[in-house]
Amino acid sequence: MGRETTSTGGRAATTGIIPGKWALSVGKPSTPAPSGFEWTPLSDVARLESGHTPSRRHEEYWDGGIPWIGIKDATGNHGKVITSTLQTVTQAGLDNSSARLLPIGTVCLSRTASVGYVVTMGVPMATSQDFINWVCGPEMSPRYLHYILVMEQESVRRFAHGTTHQTVYYPEAKAFHVCIPSRREQDRIVSVLGALDDKIAVNDRIAVTTDQLVSAIFSALIAGCSAPEEARIGDVASVNSRSLKPKQEGTLRYIDISSVGVGSYEWPDQIDWSDAPGRARRLAPPGSTVWSTVRPNRRSHALVLDTDEDLVFSTGLAVLTPGSVGSAFLYESTRTQEFQAYLEGVAEGSAYPAVRAERFKEAPLLLPTPEEREEFEETAMALRQRAHQAVVESRTLATLRDTLLPQLMSGRLRVRDAEKIVEDRV
Fold it and tell me: What is the pTM for the complete model shown?
């Protein structure tokens, strides 16, 4: 399957050696392989493929239904199998460029700008030139390679060169070596880790389905109101009502703007207050809604249901705490297109448009009757709490996976022992 001359062409593999942490290296390292494992040139067990961007001057090359992976697809889905992309291309786009349609199971590693993000194709796709793509042969499990690259993300970033823009160049990629066991053992390891990731994927679908269902119920509620009351956010909720001063000791879990996505936030590690940034000031009681004050067009917002007392939010986030309305109703009111349009309309500044706290208070919303809101709240919060339970479970499963991953791939933990651990959690 592997071949010395890949379809990327260009310069030959580097002869230098840059060891990774566990199972990946540029060149063959001096680190001995664990018993049952062997250092192998990745190009011996997988085919290296490049990507390309069809010309954007030709409209007929785009929006054709063939998934095309760009950087945002990788950064937004790191560590996942993906079946859809933000952009698609046409067959003409492939025919008139160096882009190629690659098969299911191709493992894609971002090599420029945002270096080290990994996704695997769940359907045939093409990619931009920002990716190193590996089509695995019979001796290399695609999912095993996926786990190696995820585990070695920091190593991949060390393989990159450049001052302004870091890039992993093809001579280094062609010299990649992986420390792997037999295909049979790879599959056994993948089955253990995959059981955790499969459960996380189910929980992700629960969250997505909940978002869609609650939003549909909310839309029906507003559309069915005969005479909704016009109000302002400040009439029914407080904005940035709770703050705290930096502490001299203790720990916190800090959530900044970059940690907040569209409807969710990344769970932060605990850090010491001595290491906390100056913007770590906001408190968000459970049931609050947080919205980024910067670049509202990105729709960075989330409903806070965690009860961890160590959670502290950035002053770059507006915290909306419900008063005379329920948490679910307030949250849905801020997820509408009208609310986003309002924020974009009152944002100040050109390079980094931002919304002042007072502007959040002035945002309009429609209020159904108290009885209608109560009925909605009961249904919506039950769904939101169930989805939150799934999110919390996924955090635990991801921690377990990340703990088992290097132990299994370094041979320090036997598969049968890992299976017992996972059976107790899944």
Answer: 0.84
Task: Walk across the sheet containing 280-282 and list its strands.
Answer: 270-272, 251-255, 311-314, 280-282
In whole angstroms, give the CA distance from residue 336 to residue 347. 17
Nearest by Cα to 104 from 139, 67, 63: 67
CA angle, residues 269, 275, 281, in degrees to nearest 5: 80
* 67: DSSP letter: E
Q: Tell whether the torsion through CA atoms of 77, 202, 307 and 359 is positive or negative.
A: positive
Q: Closest Cα partner for 105 from 87, 119, 88?
A: 119
**DSSP code string of 170-235:** HHHHHTEEEEE--HHHHHHHHHHHHHHHHHHHHHHHHHHHHHHHHHHHHHHHHHT-SSPEEEEHHH
* Distance separating alpha carbons of residues 133 and 50, to the nearest angstrom: 6
Q: Give the position of tokens 């870091």.
A: 166
Confidence of residue 411 (pLDDT cuts 50, 70, 90): confident
Sign of CA dihedral 403, 408, 414, 419: positive
Question: In whole angstroms, what is the distance from residue 258 CA to residue 276 CA?
Answer: 15
For the packed helices 370-409 and 183-223, what is the interaxial angle rounded to 10 degrees? 170
pLDDT tens digits along 230-285: 999 999 999 999 999 888 789 999 999 999 999 999 999 999 999 999 999 999 99
Query: 139: how many CB neighbours lie within 10 A of its CB?
Result: 15
Domains and CATH numbers, the chain: 18-180 (3.90.220.20), 182-224+369-426 (1.10.287), 229-367 (3.90.220.20)
Residue type, 307: T
How many Å apart are CA 262 and CA 301, to the nearest integer? Answer: 6
C-alpha dihedral (75, 79, 83, 84), degrees to nearest 10: -10
Q: For tokens 């093809």, what's the residue?
A: 170
d(CA 221, CA 374): 11
Tokens of 405: 């991953």
